[in-house]
């Protein structure tokens, strides 16, 4: 959030979601303009008031074992193509998927929220690296477009975000996309999904008008 310290605005939600969590495996692979160590340190600082141990997955040899021994996997934002490329290279997609399905908690922001989807296709990022496929972790059955805004630049002829999502839906008609603006998050517990924060998300489906969604219990599928 512009004008707020890093990861400051969702703290009240994170404290509740991470209650009882002691060990976190942090995935810094979306970081491109900073080192993985620098990225991990910035996340540790954001959570320094929590009684949790955060380990950057890049510093351990047996990354799958770290995931198994952790209570939560955190995946940070940055470039989602670089993130997915590295996760695929290290064969971590399936271990993270299995861990979360078994009860380990997952926290992802920006590119990290894209990884929770089935595919990378609704990212906003430039493809600076080429992953083996666009298949992501697939924890949810709808797509997220993070940082959603439909603002356009005056005197600029580029497409709006809404138009780009509609293009995606022309080629992926069975999909659902949630335009998630700044200051909002999606929290999932089993079969229950809740939209939290301030503002409105936008729900996109092929052949339908975009629907504004207010905070509360929701169904996106």
Q: What does this 3D model show about the protein?
A:
33% of the residues are buried. Strands 2-1-3-4 form a four-stranded parallel beta sheet, with helices on both faces. It has two domains: 127 residues, Class I glutamine amidotransferase (GATase) domain (Rossmann fold), CATH 3.40.50; 82 residues, Class I glutamine amidotransferase (GATase) domain (Rossmann fold, 3-Layer(aba) Sandwich), CATH 3.40.50. It contains seven helices and eleven strands. It is 27% helix and 22% strand. The protein is globular and about 45 Å long. The model has no long low-confidence stretch (mean pLDDT 96). Strand 1, helix 2 and strand 2 form a beta-alpha-beta unit.
Topology, element by element:
Layout: H1 11-17, E1 23-27, H2 36-46, E2 53-56, H3 63-69, E3 72-75, H4 80-89, H5 93-101, E4 105-108, H6 111-115, E5 143-146, H7 161-171, E6 176-180, E7 184-189, E8 192-197, E9 201-205, E10 211-213, E11 216-218
Parallel strand pairs: 1-2, 1-3, 3-4, 5-6
Antiparallel strand pairs: 6-9, 7-8, 8-11, 9-10
């Amino acid at each position: 959030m512009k004008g707020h310290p890093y990861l400051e605005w969702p703290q009240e939600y994170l404290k509740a979601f991470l209650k009882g969590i002691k060990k976190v495996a942090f995935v810094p692979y979306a970081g491109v303009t900073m080192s993985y160590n620098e990225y991990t340190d910035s996340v540790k600082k954001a959570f320094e008031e929590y009684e949790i141990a955060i380990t950057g997955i890049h510093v351990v040899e047996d990354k799958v074992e770290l995931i198994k021994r952790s209570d939560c996997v955190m995946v940070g934002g940055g470039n989602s193509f670089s993130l997915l490329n590295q996760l695929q290279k290290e064969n971590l997609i399936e271990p993270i998927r299995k861990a979360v399905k078994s009860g380990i908690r997952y926290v992802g922001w920006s590119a990290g929220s894209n990884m929770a989807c089935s595919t990378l296709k609704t990212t906003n990022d430039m493809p600076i690296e080429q992953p083996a496929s666009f298949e992501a972790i697939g924890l949810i059955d709808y797509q997220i477009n993070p940082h959603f805004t439909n603002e356009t630049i005056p005197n600029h002829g580029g497409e709006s975000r809404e138009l780009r999502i509609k293009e995606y839906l022309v080629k992926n008609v069975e999909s659902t996309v949630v335009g998630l603006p700044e200051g909002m998050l999606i929290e999932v517990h089993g079969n229950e999904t809740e939209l939290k924060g301030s503002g409105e998300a936008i729900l996109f489906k092929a052949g339908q008008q975009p629907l504004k969604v207010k905070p509360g219990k929701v169904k996106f599928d």
